[in-house]
Amino acid sequence: MIPANCLTDILGLRVGHAGDTLICSGVTAVIFDQPCVASVMVLGGAPGGRDLGLLSPAATVERIDAIVLGGGSAFGLDAAGGVQSALREDGRGYPVAGHRVPLVPQAILFDLANGGDKNWGRFSPYRDFGYAAARAATAGPVPIGSVGAGMGATTATVKGGLGSASVVTAGGYTVAALVAVNALSSPLIGDGPWFWAAPFEVGAEFGDLGWPAQMGSQATALRTKGRPQPATTIGLVATDATLTKSQAHRLAIMAHDGLARAVLPAHAPMDGDTIFAASTGRRPLADLTELGHAAASVFARAVARGVYEAKSFPGGQPSWRDRFGG
């Protein structure tokens, strides 16, 4: 772990949040100071996204300007337009026929049933949230918990949230994750307070509780929000290693292992689990396996941190701290 323990430990990345506590939903924007190589892997059965196709290893464009994580289900897809507007004002974008078009892929999660007031009128607020998140983006420590895309997030057992974590590998690469945890299932073992991600914890970043001394049959019993019930965990892993688009795609695939280690079960039919991967290309790549292992571990830690730091809203789902203290 390195000091800030968040996505902005990757030099050249900025993160901003925006949202509304009355709506109980929000947006997180990740802005790349320079266009980054990126790809994505979708393993949930009910995903929602914008411009995910251009991140295919077979697609032409290699680099993008930003990634957006948003609440609001399909309404939340307006957020990428707000981020795109901010970047266009800044003169950013892919050159096409004398114009610059900012490339801003997005993934969304379902938080429409979390108790917030979704009667926002004719147009959703997410475009404005996206613009505000882009303008708020900084390279400083990333606020986590009930902020941005994690504001309205829930899980089967406790309030979800936005988490982040980072690591420097033995080879000297920095790998970091940012995730909005809105899982259909549970990040906790049994009735808690233990996190499935405990073996990967660094220090006491989510309580230093370890695993229970024994795991009975209830530890692995299925816990969900109810079926059918839309959910989705969305996130990003980034590195300063130089990756091709195909290598970034492989990194996103391996990061999904971290999600599967942190919530049980993952990748359900009504989840939209989506993970982006991005490379700033500041260091030559030596070992993609090392990066993938780090990506899985850091993603699992980010999931647990997001839940551990979440705060409940009036009338909403209790947080981990509401239930277990700390």
Q: Kindly give the count of domains.
A: 1
CATH homologous superfamily annotation: L-amino peptidase D-ALA esterase/amidase
Q: Helix and strand succession?
A: EEEEHEEEHEEEHEHH
Taking the alpha carbons of the first and last residues, their distance comes to 22 Å
* Helix content, binned percent: 10-25%
CATH topology descriptor? L-amino peptidase D-ALA esterase/amidase
Largest sheet features: 9 strands, mixed
The CATH architecture would be: 4-Layer Sandwich
Beta-strand residue percentage: 15-25%
Question: What is the typical, i.e. mean, pLDDT?
Answer: 96
Instruction: Give unreliable regions as ranges.
Output: none
Number of strands: 11
CATH class: Alpha Beta
Count of helix runs: 5
Inertia-based shape: globular
Secondary-structure-derived class: alpha+beta
Cα radius of gyration in angstroms: 18 Å
In short:
The protein has a single domain, classed as 4-Layer Sandwich (L-amino peptidase D-ALA esterase/amidase), CATH 3.60.70.12.
Molecular structure report:
Helix content is about 20%, strand content about 25%. The two termini are about 20 Å apart. It has a single domain, classed as 4-Layer Sandwich (L-amino peptidase D-ALA esterase/amidase). Helix 1 crosses helix 2. The strands form two sheets. Strands 1, 2, 3, 4, 7, 8, 9, 10 and 11 form a nine-stranded mixed beta sheet that branches. The chain has a two-stranded antiparallel sheet with strand order 5-6. About 55% of the residues are buried. Strand 10, helix 3 and strand 11 form a beta-alpha-beta unit. By secondary structure, it is of the alpha+beta class. It is globular and about 60 Å long. It contains five helices and eleven strands.
